[in-house]
Amino acid sequence: MKAQISTEPGGPETLRLIEMDDPQPKDNQILLRIHATGVNYPDALIIRDLYQAKPPRPFAPGSEMAGEIVAVGKDVSGFAVGDHVIGLSDNGGFATHVCLHPDQLIKTPNDMPFDEAACFILTYGTSHHALKNRARLLAGETILILGAAGGVGVAAIELAKCIGARVIAAVSSEEKARFCTEIGADLTLIYKPDMGRDDQRPFSGQIKDLAGPGGVDVVYDAVGGAYSEPAFRSLSWEGRFLVVGFPSGIPKMPLNLPLLKGAQILGVFWGAWTQRDPKGHERNAQELFGLYRAGKLRPRITASFPLERSAEALELLESRKALGKIVVTMR
Questions:
Q1: Phi/psi at 272 (nearest 5 deg)?
Q2: Helical H segments across 20-132, by residue range
Q3: pLDDT tens profile 162-194
Q4: Measuring CA to CA, which residue among 113, 109, 145 is closest to residue 126?
Q5: Phi and psi of 298, rounded to 5°?
Q6: Contacts for 234-241: CB closer than 8 Å, 24+ residues apart
Q7: What are the Cα distances from residue 50, in Å, to 27, 262, 309?
Q8: Distance CA 8, CA 318 (A)
């Protein structure tokens, strides 16, 4: 097997491509031949020791992979050699093979391309859980999505439109705004890439102008930093604020704001939820596959890199210039 491994904390430039013997599945393990791995923000954090999971080195980053089963260990049931699956793990995806436990795998339709499967369950799962289980978004409501052109943002746009909500996509460039409109956003808003304190009040005013006098019902915040407070100020009475991620930094929120608006701040930790409620996770996954088969969801892959260039994939992700999803493919 081949793998891009992290041997020391650092950025994408610290990854090293190595070859080793193929792993062998232990009892209750499955050997997956990886065909594609989705690139997600935690992959950039984990190699810097900035993610909540800190695996022992050496390890390969990559938390969402798709491929086919090539071997199964003892005591494995429900899976067989040849099955097409999505694998979820804190690491191991930037490689040609990985051993995972059955509860880390989800079967996929055999006609689902591997690159789309590798970019599906984490982003759509996160956004589906956020909109359905946390915010309980309803048809006719207005949702503001910060960082709408990224992986989870695009998924949130598509899922919100499936629900029947009105979507305001907030992004950092004209190109990203056009991209979100093509996906289905009703309105777009361009914010400054580096927002200062003086920019916050005008930004909040722009959101309110687009949303109308009642404000927005739900804020989906995948950005954090200086963008969170002005977005929160645009909420309606009893609005819901979803904390999804904070690549721009962990925001400091004045707690008088939720009091004055009767609003809720709702954390979205999809990974922990899937472990605490596996049956709910399975229901959501099947709903997502149903929407995919119906043609209502489709991963928007705009960049693909071979395994040996996976560091470039992470660099593109960190530049915040990527649209939709980035994938690493194994040849």
A1: -65, -35
A2: 41-46, 114-117, 121-128
A3: 999 999 999 999 999 999 999 999 999 999 988
A4: 145
A5: -155, 120
A6: 234/144, 234/204, 234/207, 234/208, 235/261, 235/263, 236/211, 236/261, 237/261, 237/262, 237/263, 238/262, 238/263, 238/264, 239/215, 239/263, 239/264, 240/134, 240/135, 240/136, 240/264, 240/266, 241/265, 241/266
A7: 32, 34, 22
A8: 19
Question: Residues in the chain, how many?
Answer: 331
Angle between helices 151-163 and 174-183 (to 10 degrees): 40
Per-residue model confidence (pLDDT) at position 84: 97
Checking phi first, is residue 62 left (phi over 0); if not, alpha (psi -120 to 50) or beta?
left
DSSP state of 308: G
Q: Which two tokens stand for residue 218?
A: 């739900």
Residue 95 DSSP label = B
What sections of 32-141 are H helices per DSSP? 41-46, 114-117, 121-128
Q: Are the C-beta atoms of residues 108 and 85 closer than 8 Å to each other?
A: yes
**Do 251 and 184 touch, CB atoms closer than 8 A?**
no
